[in-house]
Amino acid sequence: MRKVILIAIAAIMALAGLTGPATARTTASIISDGLRVDVTFTGKQPTKAKLVVGGSTYKLTRKGKTWRTKTLTAQRIAALVGKQAKVKIKVKGKRRTVGATITGPATAPIAPPVPPTTPAPLFTAPGVDSTGNAAWEAIKGYFLDSTFTDCPAGWPNCAVEYRYGHFANYQQAYCRLTNTSGSDIINGRHPIYIAGAEQKADGSWAVSYQLDWGDGQPRWYSWYVAANGSVTGRYWFNADPNLSAPTEEITGLVWVRGARDCSY
Question: CA angle 116-119-120, nearest 5°?
Fold first, then answer.
């Protein structure tokens, strides 16, 4: 009689679902991020998984709680989104297949445009014009310890370089450096005496000075440096710049930081 009663109780518990917790069912959620297909599972987690869509199989690699394909082409993603897919998995050694529709964007997310970068100005723009000592005090840090050159990378990166180096001790060196033996011009450092200075509101500036070789033959330079660093100049040899046309008009140079002499 006791055995019959125990069997009856067990049957009632089984009918009522009280013999133990229900086995967790594995389900899949399949989403495209526009670059690849991601699969997440609820319930028991698989140890292996692969995605099957329309006869094509895609290997899935686990990353955290997400299984994902490799990066796919835009055309492949567009063809997959909206399709019914099967995910073949292995859970505790048993193979199963779960299905779901691939949802999400069919195209890769568009990165926001990168705003163009504006290079920092070479010279601080004062907003007002100035001349004389006020201008010189503003620009002397740009002129002294600088070089005017047509080859910023420096010879021998160019076949020929014209170079005017201006040093913090108020000296100038002038050189023409070439690849041809005997064609170089090497004028070492000589003192300069500032005669005038000017600065424009946009930061461009000008300077004029006498170069003293100590030979009684005056040499004068007048330079204009634009806000973008381009340089033009005029040179007088053994002449008064107030009375004579320049001996040479100089163009094609740029301003660079750092005084360079005629060293190779």
Answer: 140
The answer to pTM > 0.85 is: no
Distance of CA 5 to CAs 8, 14, 17, 107, 160, Å?
5, 14, 19, 65, 111
Q: Quick one: tokens of 47?
A: 């140890």
95 and 135 in a single domain? The answer is no
Can you give the residue range of the structural domain that contains 166? 130-257
Residues 67-123 have pLDDT tens digits of 888 988 888 888 888 889 899 988 888 898 988 888 887 676 667 788 887 788 999
My answer on whether 234 and 159 are in the same domain is yes
Q: In what order do the strands lie in the sheet containing 94-101?
A: 56-59, 48-53, 84-91, 94-101
| Chain segment 1-30, per-residue pLDDT in tens | 444 333 333 333 443 444 334 345 777 677
Tokens of 135: 């201008």
SS3 75: helix
Cα distance between residue 164 and residue 262, in whole Å: 9
**What burial letters (b/e) apply to 135-167, b meaning 16+ CB within 10 Å?**
bbebbbebbbebbbbebeebbeebeebbbbbbb
- Overall average pLDDT of the 205-233 stretch: 96
Would residue 153 count as lying in a domain? yes
